[in-house]
Amino acid sequence: MLVLGLESSCDDCSAAVLEESADGPRVRSLVRKSQDELHGPFGGVVPELAAREHLLQVRTVVQSALDQAGVTLAELDRIAVTRGPGLVGSLLCTFSAAKALAWRSGKDWVGVHHLLGHLNAARIASPHLPFPALALLVSGGHTHLYLAKDWTHLELLQKTRDDAAGEAFDKAARLMGLGYPGGPLVDACARRASAPGPRFTAPKFRDGVASWSFSGLKTGVKLRVEADAILATGGAEAPEVQALCRSLQDTIAEWLLKPLPGHAEATGARSLILSGGVACNSALREQAKHLCDRLGLTLAVPEPRYCTDNGAMIAAAGALLPVERDWSLNADSDLRLTQG
Ligand code: KG4
Ligand code: ZN
């Protein structure tokens, strides 16, 4: 089965052609048009600008994905597109484009929940993963831990109470004047640190609800930056900035993984799926590997280009879902996870 996947829930416009067979999914092409330069000066994504840019980009991005795969629209079996959640303007643009393409070509189409996409990114390299699996999906908008029964059925175990882990990276990078998006810049800077720095203190929750909180990290970084000017002005070359980046990312990785042994034991999980933009982080990938070795879990982490938002993950999820019959269906910025 040949699937065209489209993703534009935030600031990247991406399309991919994926071939699904009994051996699993094979990515035939992946095109991703980043808007980092457009939003960089604002220190974060400007929703209006993102939507306008998607309008300009979507045709070329789709055509390039088809060309690079050597496939015509007529040869596709279905079109998969992110339906939500995300920025409404961004979602609407690509969702409408996908429906129009499907209508014009008479192809089947399917709307995909963004997080099912992140989950299925792991299917590209690990199609025969043992289930049940813990699925830690960490990005700029989500920090959610699910129990995955299979590739389309998820049950929420815990999530963040406030900021997503990616947001913590982005905000901290802004405070250190490193640029946008912050995650990859903090990661690169941390890898240059000569020694691990002191960890941040973990928040305590009185209500006993299993969850994370990352908003305090921003304050922690702000206090350190205010106490030492070099942290705001030194840039990636300064050893002090490198040490702070190392503390920050080691802390985030440690906090994210801490509840996993308990959940693995309680659920009988056999694998860990780690995906979403923050799953590109070197410390998190390394710590997750050690944890899985210790617990005897199979680890599935996509290549970095499939961790961040991309059309291939939407095609991979869309290949497994029932096709839509309702042409009045629209994008939904608050879409709940009920698919599968
Ligand atoms: O999944 P994604 O592309 O988009 C959302 O759905 O949000 O994730 C983007 C997030 C950003 O916050 C970015 O800073 C973070 O992923 N990110 C990273 C790394 N690469 C991207 N965070 C930490 N380390 C990285 N290497
Ligand atoms: Zn995402």
What does it look like?
The protein is of the alpha/beta class and 340 residues long. It folds into 2 domains: 2-121 and 305-318, Nucleotidyltransferase, domain 5 (2-Layer Sandwich), CATH 3.30.420.40; 131-301, Nucleotidyltransferase, domain 5 (2-Layer Sandwich), CATH 3.30.420. Helix content is 43%, strand content 20%. The strands form 2 sheets. Strands 9-8-7-6-10-11 form a 6-stranded mixed sheet, sandwiched between helices. β6 (133-138) and β7 form a beta hairpin. α9 runs parallel beside α11 (282-295). The longest helix has 23 residues, at 47-69. The protein is globular and about 60 Å long. The structure holds 5'-O-[(R)-(carboxyoxy)(hydroxy)phosphoryl]adenosine and zinc ion. The site of zinc ion has 5 residues, from α4.
Key structural traits:
single chain; 340 residues; alpha/beta; Nucleotidyltransferase, domain 5; 2 domains; 6-stranded mixed beta sheet; 5-stranded mixed beta sheet; 13 helices; binds 5'-O-[(R)-(carboxyoxy)(hydroxy)phosphoryl]adenosine; binds zinc ion
Question: How is this fold's topology laid out?
Answer:
Layout lengths: L1 E6 L5 E9 L2 E10 L2 H4 L7 H23 L8 E7 L3 H18 L2 E6 H12 L7 E6 L4 E6 L5 E7 L4 H11 L6 H9 L20 E2 L2 H13 L2 H4 L5 H19 L2 H8 L3 E5 L6 H14 L2 E3 L3 H4 L3 H8 L22
Parallel strand pairs: 1-4, 4-5, 6-10, 8-9, 10-11
Antiparallel strand pairs: 1-2, 2-3, 6-7, 7-8
The structure holds 5'-O-[(R)-(carboxyoxy)(hydroxy)phosphoryl]adenosine and zinc ion (ZN).
